Amino acid sequence: MLGAATAEAGQITGTLLVFALMVIPAATAQTVTGRPGAGLTTAVLLALVATWPGLTTAYYWPYPLGFFVTSYAFAGYLLARSGRALHTRLGRTVAPLLNKEATA
Question: Is 64 helix (H, G, I), strand (E, B) or coil?
Fold first, then answer.
């Protein structure tokens, strides 16, 4: 079913846009949560969040729709990866300090 929907949508909207809406929100959701149900819901919401501002921006600018949707989706992915990296780094930095205070 997913393959048929991708094949049909690719002919109408273009391969880049279909790839961006199928892969990038799912990768972002996987970065944010590890639970399958929450990941599916998050991926759908992220795709909508990338699509509507992309449509609005494409209406006012002379560039293709796929460029804006892909840019917004990729910016969300970069933001999620940066947040995950920052969370990991702060967790490693703060945890030893908290353990030292707990033992003192």
Answer: coil
Q: Distance between alpha carbon 37 and the CA centroid of its chain, in Å? A: 16
Q: Is 61 left (phi over 0), alpha (psi -120 to 50) or beta?
A: beta
Tokens (6 digits) for 30: 């996987």
User: Helices (H), strands (E): how many in the chain?
Assistant: 4, 0
Q: Are residues 21 and 45 in contact, defined by beta-carbon separation less than 8 angstroms?
A: no
pLDDT over 70 for what percent of the chain?
81
pLDDT digit string, tens, across residues 51-93: 999 999 999 999 888 889 999 999 999 999 998 888 888 876 6
Are 49 and 37 within 8 A, CB to CB?
no
* Cα(5)–Cα(12) distance, integer angstroms: 11
Model pTM? 0.75
Amino acid letter, 29: A
